Amino acid sequence: MIRILLAEDQAMVRGALTALLSLETDIEVLGAAPDGESAWREVQRLKPDLLVTDIEMPGLSGLELAQRIQRHELPTKVVIVTTFARAGFLRRALDAGVSGYLLKDAPAEDLAEALRKVHRGGRAIDAQLALEAWSEPDPLNDRERQVLRLAGEGLSAGEIATQLSLSQGTVRNYLSEAIGKLGVGNRIEAYRLARQKGWL
């Protein structure tokens, strides 16, 4: 049996995925978590073969979950199922050791087949997205991404500095670097462009 944990913040989608996968004779759904933090606790408790997760969730994102699993060297493999058809997200997912990246509008039977493939040690990546992912590299480093995300949420340089335990000057430097790399005029434009490309 392929033992699976689901992480999805939308109750209807979570229920639909659980019902869908439960129909497969070789797949057992161990549980379904509504957010990243509870998914992390369940991964440690249940030790599933696969974690099927969305990207954007309250608390920890699916990418942060994958990074945590990778950092702790847990055997659970991660498959992301998302609406985000953005090459930047896929690149970051692959960097975080994700074994599968599928779009929610793919046919239902593709999901079960992808999970079997990943369980056997393979990879299941949306083909069109895989091509795009290598056409435009993400220019931001992790710290620039972090600072830009908070700036996009409306935090001032001082508030970002406090939250990340940095000096205001360092925060301004990171923002300036990000703006320069993205070739835009200000932090809001930088945030919008990075979001659109899937780099945040």
UniProtKB/TrEMBL annotation:
Database matches in CDD domains: LuxR_C_like, REC_DesR-like
SUPFAM superfamilies linked to this entry: C-terminal effector domain of the bipartite response regulators, CheY-like
Pfam families linked to this entry: GerE, Response_reg
UniProt keywords, alphabetically: DNA-binding, Phosphoprotein
PTM annotation (4-aspartylphosphate): residues: 54
HTH luxR-type domain location: 133-198
Response regulatory domain boundaries: 3-119
Entry-linked InterPro entries: CheY-like_superfamily, Sig_transdc_resp-reg_C-effctor, Sig_transdc_resp-reg_receiver, Tscrpt_reg_LuxR_C, WalR-like, WH-like_DNA-bd_sf
Membrane-crossing residue ranges in chain numbering: none
Entry annotated with the keyword Phosphoprotein: yes
Protein name as annotated: Response regulator
Organism whose genome encodes this protein: Lysobacter brunescens
